[in-house]
Give the backbone structure.
Amino acid sequence: MKTLSRDEIVDLLSADRPHFLELLEEARKMREKHYDRFVTIHILSNAKSGRCSEDCGFCSQSARYSTAIETYPLLKPETLLEQASNAAAAGAEKFCIVTATRAATRPLLDKLCPTISTIKKTFPHLKICTSLGLLTPEAAQRLKEAGADRYNHNLETSERFFPNLVTTHSWTDRVRSVEIAKTAGLETCCGGLVGIGETKEDIADWLLALHRLDVDSIPINLFDPRPGTPYASVRPLSATEALRILALARLVHPHRDIRCAGGREKILGPLQPLALFAVNSIFSNGYLTTPGQGLAADREMIRAVGYQIREIREKSGSERIDENTAAPFPKTGLQSTSTSSSDRPLKTAKTRPEQATSLRSS
Ligand code: SF4
């Protein structure tokens, strides 16, 4: 499967031509081709907060930095079950269990796997994603057998830039964990964060690395500097810079589940609804250590742009369109997830102004 080249991505990220809205319009066509006007909701559980041994410089949960987050050990099974119940009731497609841990260790899995099995039995149509750190084949197998559907482990950024952010494990360690998850039959959720000082080339390399890894889902965090961390004083992305990156992510990954993750409200501000023209899913009801705008406001935002939440009926497993979002529109159904070179929309004009409006399907 061909995609944009590194040079093409860098060109489109670097210039102020084409205008970000033109790029977003190309992304919207791709997004609606594969996901129609549906949005899926993912709900996070910060199942074990803080005191992490790793030194990820962007993360307020590292034990190495003095941050003002709430810390606690692994949540009790009944708490996680209640959270899963709330996620199902909210119409979420995925319930994401995240722990601030270096790796999915045996003791962690001993505690967590029975809970995953209980959630799966209770809510069979709620997909369960786990994000527990580095994986071994044995750990991946245990999660799969317990009923987890998906594993999240982000590359975060390019291989070149990664050592600026993390020194306690490597980018290659992360790639290996994603490959292990895939081999175990878990769906892979793997993205990263933008706006922490990486270059346009780093963003291009990161997007292309995800393409090579052939990941199923790509969460993109818009870096919202966390007080007390080494990157607390980084200049945040502007909303239009962030939207340009989200649009490029869609153009590089036309049919993937791309999710606007942490930082959505803070970085995009009033332009936040425009992100839905590039991404097809969002985390709702807050992030790991920061609040979001809440489910009601997310529903309103989705309705306002004419999109609808795609929910799964827990009892029957059938799809349901949330009647509280969006006016009716002709339902064309989800498109095939296969893709082809016809998904490549851009002949990247080397951004001469006179070529700026020539964003047409090739
Ligand atoms: S491994 Fe995860 S929780 Fe731990 S410091 Fe890194 S990003 Fe934060």
Observations:
- The pocket of iron/sulfur cluster is lined by residues 52, 54, 56, 59, 61-62, 100, 102, 133 (CB under 6 Å).
- Residues 6-323 form a domain with the TIM Barrel fold (CATH 3.20.20.70).
